[in-house]
Structures are given as C-alpha cells and as structure tokens.
Amino acid sequence: MQQTLNQTSRRREFTVADEYQYDRRSPVRWIISHIMRYPLLPVIAIASNILSNASIAYGAVLIGQGFDLINQPGITSADLRSLALQVFIFFAGLGVFGVSGAFAYEFIAQLVERNTREELFISLLGKSQTFHNRQRVGDIMARATNDVQQLNIMINPGIGLIADALFSIIVPIIAIGLLNVQLLLVPILFLIVFFFALRSYAIQLGPISGQLREQFGVMNAGLAEAISGIEVVKAYGQEPSEQDRFLANARRYRDLFVVQGRVQARYLPVLLFGVALGLGFGHALLLFRAGVLTQGDVVAFMGLMFLLLFPTFISLFAFVLVQLGAASAERILSIINTETELDENAAGVSQPMRGELVFENVTFSYGDGSAAPVLRNISFRANAGETVAIVGQTGSGKSTLTRLVNRTYDATAGRVLIDGVDVRDWSLQALRSQISTIEQDIFLFSRTIGENIAFGVPDTTQAQIEQAARDAQADAFIRSFPDGYATMVGERGVTLSGGQRQRLAIARAFLTDPRILILDDSTSAIDSATEDEIQQAMQRILRGRTTLLITHRLSQIRWADRILVIQRGELVAQGTHDELMTSSADYRRIFARYE
Amino acid sequence: MGFVMDGLDAEEYDRSYSDRALIRRITNYFKPHRGRMLLILLMVVLQSAVQTLLPLAIANGINTLAAIPTLTQIGLLTGAVVLIGVLGWVFNYVRQYQSAVAVGDVVLALREDAFDAVMQRDMSFYDKYQSGKIVSRVTSDTQDFSNVVTLTINLASELLVVVAVLVVLFAINPTLALITMLVLPGFAIAALVFRKAARWATRRAQRMTAQLNATVREAISGIGVAKSFRQESAIYDDFMDVNKLTFRVKLQQGLVFGTIFPALDIVAAIGAGVVVYFGGLQVLGGAATAGTWYLFLRSLQMFYLPITSIASFWSQFQQGLAASERVFALIDAESNVIQTANEPVDHLHGAISFRRVDFAYTPDVPVLRDFSLEIPAGQKLAVVGHTGAGKSSLIKLITRFYEFQGGTILIDGRDLRRLDLSQYRPQIGLVPQSPFLFSGTVADNIRYGRPTASDAEVEAAARTIGGAWLDDLPEGLQTDVGERGARLSLGQRQLVALARVLLQNPCVFILDEATASIDPFTEAQIQDGLDVVMQGRTSIVIAHRLSTVRNADRIIVMQAGTIIEEGTHDTLLLQGGHYAELYTTYFRHQSIEYIEQVGAWSS
Fold it and tell me: What percentage of chain B exceeds 70 in pLDDT?
C-alpha cells in the first residue's frame, strides 16, 4: 500500500505520481487554490477587465473632447478623422480586451472543472471499500457531475461578471473624478443607495424564488406520482380527488409566481439609476453654468454615467451563481475530506485462512451506537467449508450481518472470529483478500465478458477463464453471442439478465478462489432450465469454502449445513432443516404448502 | 433583454399544427384577460415613448450649452430626465406585474386542462408515453408556452424603441440617419454568424457531457468492484481519457461563446467612429447642432440589444410554439375507450363472459382473436401460457383500461360498454405484479379506495389477511412507505395491496402474480392472504406460482390469443399436453420433488 506524505497525510489506497496539492482547509481556500494553480490566467482576466473598462471609459471622454474640439476655430475634417479613428480604437478596445478576458475566464472555468473532477475521482479511488459500501452511488454521481459543473458556471460567467461589474463601477467613477471631482457627488450617492437597494431586493427575492422552486418540485412530484400510479387511481375511481390535489398545488404555484413577478417588477436600482441620471445631469449643467465644465465635459460625464447601467442589471444574477457554486464546492470538498474510519491494521494477523467463522454475542447499530440496534446478540458458528443459509424478511438484518465479516462495519458489541482470531485483529488486506462477496446487484464493466471474468486476476489465461465459465454454467450462454468471450457488456454491448450476471460473478469467484464466500442470491429463475444451471453453478462454488448464503431458494435452504432464521435483527432459530422443521413454527410455515 | 445565446438547443419537432392554429389557440387562452393585455400593451407603448424621450431631453440640454443655460432651464431639464426615469420605472412595473398575473393565470388554466386530459386517457396512452414525458408536458411545457407571449411582448417593446428612435433620427437629420442605419445589418450579421457556430459547439458539448456522465457513472459504480480486485488504475485511465476530451470540447464551446459580445462591441465601435466623423462634419458645416450629434451617438447604443434579440427571437419563439403544441396534442388526444351509455352499477355477482372478442394494441397485430370465455361467479381461474400469449390482455379488458375491437364482454350478463365506469371499476380488485403505493403511511394506502374507512376497518382488513406482516413493519400501520412504496419490500407492497383490495370489497379479484422472488416468509404470508381475498369472489390469476395453479378451480392454457387447453392441475398434467410442457418449463423447480432432488446433486 502506497503512503503519501502530503500536508494532510490522509491514509489512501490509491495515489497518482506528482499529484497537485490543493488547499482543502475550507471551500473558499480550496477554490482559490484551484484558480491559482494557473496564476497567469487570473492576472490576464483581471487585467482584461480593467483595460476593457478603461478603454470604453476613455472612449466616452474622447467623444466629450470632440464636442469641445468642434467649437474651436480652424478645425478640419482631418482632425475629425483622427478623432473618429481614436474613438473607434478605444471602443474596439472594449471588444479586444473583452475577448482576452472571456478566454481567460473560460480557461480557468474549464480547467477547474476538469481538475476538480480528477481530484474528486482520485480521492474516491483512494477511499476504502468501507467508504464505498456505505456511500450511495447516486449521491457521489451528483457531486461528480452537477456540482462540478456548477463550479464551472460559478467562475464563468459568475465571477467573471462580478469582476467585470466591479470594474465597470470603479473605472467610470475614477474617470468622472478625473473629469471633475465635484461630479462624483451624484454617482457616489447613487452607488451607496444602489448597494442597499440591491441587498434588500436580494433579501426579498431569495426566499420567494426558493419557495417557487420548491412548489414546482412539489407539483411535479405529486403529478408524477399520480401518473405512475394511474392504474390504481383509475381502478379505484379516484380521479376527482387526484384532480383536487393537483389543482391545489398548481394554484399555490401560480400565487407564488405572481408574488415573484411583483418583486421583480419592483426592482428599485433601475428607478435609482433613472433619478441619478437626471440629478447628475442637472449637477453637470450647474457646474457648466459656473464655468467649471466645458460642453465636452458634460457629454463625457453623461457617457460615463450610462456605463453604470451595466452593473445595475447584472450583479444579482452573478451573485446567485457564485452562491450556488460555493454550496457545490462545500459538497465536493466534504467528500474529498471524509476519512475512512477503519484502521488498515497492516501489522495484524496475516496468514492463510481455513475459514472457520464464529459470531459471539454480536450486536450492531449504525452510527455511534446510540441508534436502535440492527442486529441483537447474534451467536453462531460455521466450520470451515460449511454452507450457512440466512433466511428472513427483507430488512431483517441479513445483509448487515454478512457485512460484519469483511469489516465493512464493525460490531458494536461482541466479536466476529475467523479461525479463532477477532476480525479486528486481522490485517485488513489479508482478511479481505480471502473473502469474496457476490452482491445481489452485480456490477459489470463496459468491457468484454472475458475481461469481466478475469477482472482483478492478472495473467489469467483464456483457458482458465473458459474453465471458470464452464464451472459457473456460463460457458454455453457466452458462446451463444456472436463474439463469444470477446462480447462487449454494458451500454455499447449486450444486456445480460440477472441470472447471467450472477453466473459471471460466480465464474469470477472461481478464479479468485476465496476461503470465505458471501453470496447474496435473491434473484429468481423464471424457468426451470435456468434454475437447473444456477443450482449446479452454486453447488460447485460452495464446495470446499465457508459460505454465508442469503437466499430465497428453498432448495438451497433445505440443503444448507446450517440455517439461521433472522427476524427483526434477532436470531430466532438455527439448525439443520430437519431440526428446524421440528423446532421452529415459522420455519415450518415456509414449507407448509409443499407437502 | 434579448440574449443572443437563448434558444440554441432548440430541437426540431414533428409539427402537426400550423403556426397560425397554435397562435390562435394561445390567443384564446389570453382572451379572458383582454383588459389586462391591453393595459400591458399600453405600458409597452408608453415605455418605448419614454425611452425615446431620454436621449432627446439630454440632447436638448447639450444644445442649451451653446449659451449659458438659465437656472430655470437647468431645473426643467433635470426635472425632465428624473421624470422620464421615474415614469419608465412605473410603466415597467405595471407591465411586468400585470404580465406575471396574466401568465400565471393562463398557465394555471392550461395546466388544469392538461391534467383533466391526462386523467381521461385510457391506459394505452400511458403505454405509449413515459410518465416523465407526460409530467413535463403538464408542468414544464405549459410554462414554456407562456414564453411565446412574453417573448413577443419583449420583442415588440424593443422593436418599438428602435422604430421610434429611427423616426426621430430621420425627422431631425435624414442624411446622418441613413449613415447610422448602415451599422444595423452589421449587428444582425454578427449575431447570426455567431449563432451558427454556437449551435454547432453546443451540440458537440451536449453529446460530450452525456458521454462523460455515462463514464463517470460507470467508473463510480465500479469503484467498489475495482477496489476489491485492486484495479484502480485501470478505471482511472478510462476516466482520465474522457475527462480530458470533455475539457477540450467544452473549452471550444466556451471560446465560441466568449467571442460574441466582443464581436458586437467591435461592430458598435465601427458605428461610433462613423457617426463621430460624419456627425462632426455636419456640425462643422452647420447642418446639425451639437445636441443632434450627441443624439445620434447615444442612439447607436440603443440599437445594440434589440437587434441582437431579433437574432435569437425566432428559434426561441419556435421552441415556445413546439412546447404549446405538445400541450395541445395532449389535450386534443382522444380516449380510445368509449362508453355507449352510463348505466348505474349496483352490486355485481362477478360472472364474466367474453363473446367472440377481438383485441389488438396496434391494428395489424391481433392479440385476441374470436376469443370466448365464460367465467361463472365465484370461480377461481388460473391463466397460464408463455409470454405474449395474451394473458394480461384479459385483465386489461375486464378492467376496461383498453378498448377491444370486436365481440362483446358481459358482466353479470350486462354489456361492459354500457356501464358507468366510475361505479364499475371499484368493484374490480386488481393487484398487479409490482403494486404501486402512494407516498404516505401503510394505513393511507390501504384506505386509498375508501377514504372514509375508519382506522378500525383498516386494521381489520390488514389483520384479516394475516396480521404477522404488520408486526414486522417498524411502526405498523403508521409506517411511512416512502416514495412509490420504496421503503417496503416487493412482498410487503403486495401485502398492502391485498389489504387494500380487501377493504375495497370487490366482487371480482384479479391478480398478476409476481415473477420476482420474494423471501420465503413473506411469500408464505402472501399465499395465506390470497386464500382470504379469493374466498367467495370471482378470481382471475395470471399464475407464476405452482401453489396457485394447484389451488385453482380451473386452469386455462393460452397460446397466441386463444385457449388451447383447460381443466384442473391434476387432469391437465395427466393429459401430457401443453400444460404438462408448461409445467416442466416454468413450475417444475417450485415442486418439493425438485427441492429434494437438489440435495442429491450436492453429494
């Protein structure tokens, strides 16, 4: 196992050479460290924002100068031509630096998206199996796709717009100040009031928009449910009550929509800008009258005032994007920073397993142990090579029980022993490499069938793969595909039935040859021929290894060396079939209809 | 504000309504709000007028600077500009608020119509369309529909400003106005060229994102397996390839998008240079005042956005029309199930006759042909046969979820087509393969068909089918079943559905038995529950369990839409015909003989 010596020195199971180190102490620092990985890009971006705004502001000043120029005697069309050319150049500067700015932000955004996804993925690969067994795939998926994309959007357009808006306030204000300090009076007042108006608008709009989105979700979910259950709705003649429910939701949505419309229509900054424009104009005229300003200064001032219109409109939209991005960053970072709770125990017992398994008064509850126990005081023993069938209702704790064996979870009280040694005293690597699990949902990679069987067993020959497939009763159906063992599985290839996937997993287990096998077999065969094949494959894989078998198959239960009957987390009966038929009424009931 | 980017991902839809027909129907929805729409229109006109006045007022002010302006003049000008700002805001407020009310009401009305339409469709409609698509027609498409209207209002208001400004410019100085107008096509061309490039880049990026998501999904789902075999680097390499490719494609798209506004800025810069030069010449020659010069320069800024929004209008408008077409198609679709009368239905005995019935989902592929079957009241009938034999069609016709094309179906001797369905259907108790539960408690679901049932009645129904299952639920009857019953196992959902049927007390019970496996304890409870529910009712079961066929009064074997054998389990097995073959194929492994035989293999 590779160890890395980075600042956080986290225990990891997978690393990449010369991986870049980001600052993971807080979401903000983390995002900044991502952006600053390419220091040149933010410099170009900010410089572009400044230059493009300076360019357009100077263009406005130039136009003002034109008005003064025209009043001077002896002006020629050549002078005008050179003025027009300058105006064009500086106005075009807005476009030119606009491009360099847009490109810089775009590069940053896409690089951050790519690097974040890579960082997250490496971190996921580095997490223990325990972490992955506990985590919901959908949850991680959402973070690797939506949240990562949200970071991209936060930077471009989000941060890009905010920076641009910021400089399109600062630069014109400086230009106005240079024109004449007194002219600053109105725009500064405007900006102060504007700031508060924007804040109060955001405070008003935020909750309403949230409610509106939520109500849309409620309406959508309600309708989706009614439509998915339409057969029941119709069968019970409940159409009118479903209609009442939907209409109530749609009405609530409409009311919120109107409230939002009113808040948006009332957007005060626009009114403030209109007033500021008038007052500023008046102020400029007064200053002209006092002889402080020229006609050209007034024109330039008005041109600069109009530049403030852009931030008036854009700021709020951009702030929302940044807020959403920050929330996404927090979610991604929380996954990256999650520690694996289990200790690898590399110095623990590392020896070939015989496969004797003992549960001693095992109690288990999720979390810190204060929750209601999922398993209570379970004790049983399986000798090496025995098959133990676990039966019980869905949710009674069968799967949880098997997960204590390979230490996906650790018992809250009591002990699990393999070959007389507490599982917590085994080296985790030695323990897990000798225990295999075949889950209920079998995951196959988008690779060939042969590669899927040999996955994780390097240097397997084709002959070994085929032998394993024959033992697992999978050879015949594999050969029925045109490409045989080279047939692709998954999205670009064939779709396999549950029974076929199960037999591929069994074939894989033949190659890995574990001492202890945990088999969650809750599939059912529709036809008897398939059932025959599954039965035969199972018989072979069970032989010579200790097996915990979660199954609905009466034939497997009937012939297991030992049967555990689990009810609501308790072991209510155990023994062989014959013993249970006399001792357990519940167990007898299962077979009642077969006599 | 017209965004050039909007509507880029518009798809092309098969359209069967003409634009004109759609627009007429959309207009009809707005008719009840005629007054409000007129008010909005008035506001749009006033707003445009005010927007045109603003540069005029400022230009006028610039002209006063030829001399020293009086304080009165300054006061008036200041007042005028402030007033314009305030009025513009007020007009806009009224317009936006009234639009929100009108759109909110119209969308509500449309949603109501769409929902009613959905509820009236027969089940063949739900086979054809995914439920997610139906939902989005009722909720999202209705919203997009209103976009057609707001888009049109916005475009009208923006164009009105352009026209008004142009009129003013031509009135003041036609020569300069003509020169200024030369820039307009520049904006339009830049916007259109850009849209073409952007559409191409967007398509590529969308495809890429879909592929990336698929790879990420596989990589993440596979981490557990990869880890147990220490194959992390293999999936890491796969992932990195796609991640890098996505980066390149999305970057390309981003760069295309990044150039549009700068490109428009450069067009505007050309315009500014041109107007500075020619305007200046006019002022110099005395043909124009400084104010006019200013007015032309300012107007140029006002053309910018409206012209670009024209570029994106058409595709957004088409998108809106396509959305409204989807909604109207939903509303207009005819139900295939047609009742010829609405006769009241009191208590039924449950005798069912199929008389020479023809049935097909699609016209050319008959499922039942000349099908006849008499089911006396109270009989337990099991239906068996290979997939596609037409077993489930029987259920679909008895529940009247689908229309049949020939023959008659009689219930207690009465024509099924003449019955009031809202009274008939509650007398048929149906339990499908995977019963649907609504979010809520177990009790809510048992009570679904009879909302007035008391807690005691609900409990009694649940206990009657064998109460042990209730004790296994964490909170008994008050257990939350989760979305679509996801917190219960399939077996538990079936038990809830059985209790629901029992409370409903129908005269006919129909069961499509699950093929999926259920843990043996729950399975035993279901079997006990079924015994209770079938007691004293006509029962029709599409059977997958050996115990069910054994207990049936009568078994019919179906093949290609006809009955090829019938009898009881024992007599049919003795015959050694089709049923015997089906038994070997589907039921043999459920027998005790098989279970015993497996033991022999292992030794």
Answer: 97
